[in-house]
Each structure stands twice: as structure tokens, then as C-alpha cells.
Amino acid sequence: MSFESIEDAGDPRLVDYRDLTDVALRRVMEPAGGLYIAESAKVLTRALAAGHRVRSVLVQDKWRADAERLLAGRDVPVYVVDAAVAEGLTGYAVHRGILAAMHRPALAPAAELLAASRLVVVLEDIVDHTNVGAIFRAAAGLGADAVLISPRCADPLYRRSVRVSMGTVFQVPWTRLPEWPAAAGVLHGAGFDIAALALAEGAVALDDYAASGPGKVALVLGAEGDGLSRAALEAADTVVTIPMAGGVDSLNVAAASAVALWELRRR
After folding, report:
1. CA distances from 226 to 32, 144, 206, 221, 257 (A)
2. In the chain, what is the straight-line distance between the N-terminal and C-terminal CA atoms, in Å?
3. I need a surface site. Which of 37, 55, 215, 233 has the fewest CB within 10 A?
């Protein structure tokens, strides 16, 4: 690795970190496939463990030792800046030590992930990055084999999703599905029972559904407020619900994912 001290936020070497939304980063075509930002030493550690490649690293001097430890033996430029330059460059106070511009890996075909899975989570149009990150963390901790997301779902590699997930977006296999009903064809073709988690008349209690012993389950979750689309509900083999008490009708989608995954995995 090479350490390069930079005092000017306008330096062209820092272009990957300068006022770019993560949507813009996805469209950066040099290198081909786009970039994402890994924020903090823990997240970078997990990204490297998953085999992701580093393009460059931005660090303040007090965290230089962390960069040396993590990147030992790698041919990577490390740009050293002070706190003022880092904040002026990125647009926010950088207090997690390390930012790394990472090469975005190619997504695997959905059929490939499903072939090696028995319990998967499907996210339909969940646009809140915090919820996406929290669901990935639940998926990793509670044993889901993969996460599949709709075309309009928030990017799991957006820096806030990555941070909230504690880097588990790098350890849980994920890819994108097509729109319904094509997505149902992919899931059914791999032998999955599609279970839509929703408040609906005639919905089956989650514990009863889990007790019925479905062999391979695709748990479909929708956005806060709007919930699942009509197309998703029509594609489902079963609509399931979490029995609630205390006058509460539902949980936050991330909390609901954890409850459902625990019940399904436990059975």
C-alpha cells in the first residue's frame, strides 16, 4: 500500500469520495461495475473477507495504523487527510475511521442462489436503507440462506445499509429478482413456497405456518406503511401474519423479519 497525504479536498485523487450520492457511485463505470463505500474498519474487514476488491482508502492520520493492519500486502493507495478535509469532501463528519471505495461485485443469478438455499428473504420495494441493513443483520444472525430484492428496493451496498447491517451484507448472499409475476416463477421453479408477511383477511398465523413444515420458504416482506403490493400478495402461496397483543397490529419490518426468521428456522 502507499500512503499519500492530501491537504486539498479538491484534489482529483479524491473524486470517489466527493459529494457523490451512492446512486451516482453505482453508475461510475471506471472500473466497470461501479463502486460502493465501505465505512469503518469493521465493515472493511468483512468486505475484504468476502473477497471484495479495494480501489482506494480515505483515512485520517489517527486511524493510519488500522489501515496498515487491514491492507497489509495489498497494492492500494491510502489517502491521508485531516478531519476538516474529510468533512468538506464527503459532506458529513467522518468519525468511523476509514472510508474505502470498493469495486462492486457482479450479482449472481437468482437461480444460482436459490439452488443452495432452503430459507430466503424477499424484499419488495423497501426503500429505507436502515430497514434494509437491519433485515440483512437479522438474516445473517438467524440463519437465512439468501436475500433477494425487487428492482426498486434500496441498495444493500448503500453506506447506511452497510453500516446498520454491521457488514453482514457481505456475508449473506443476495441478488435482485425481476418484477412479479416473473419473480414467482423463479421462486416456484426452485421449489419454494412463497409466504407473504402481511395483515390480510384469512392470513395464517406464523407459528401455524411454521408448524406445517414447508420444505423451502421464501419470506416476502414489504415497505413500511404501504406494505406488500397486490401483485406480491397474488403471487404468494400463503399469506402469514405474526399474532400480536396489547392492541398493536404490526411491527417494524426489520423487527418482523427477525421474529419470522426465528420461528421458521426454529421449526
Report:
1. 35, 24, 21, 11, 16
2. 48
3. 215
Q: What is the pTM of this model?
A: 0.87
SS3 of 10, please? coil
Regarding whether 155 and 98 lie in a shared domain, the answer is: no
Phi, psi of 98 (to 5 degrees): -125, 135
Residues 127 and 257 in one domain: yes
| Structural domain count of the chain | 2
Strand-pair partners of 64: none
Which residue range(s) make up the domain with 257? Answer: 110-266
Give the domain-ending residue among 71, 103, 135: 103
Tell me which of 84, 103, 122 is where a domain ends.
Answer: 103
**pLDDT grade for 23, boundaries at 50, 70 and 90:** low
What is the per-residue pLDDT across 73-97, written as a single tens digit (0 to 9) for each? 999 999 999 888 888 777 766 666 7
**Residue 227 is placed in which grid cell?**
406494505
CA distance 58 to 56: 7
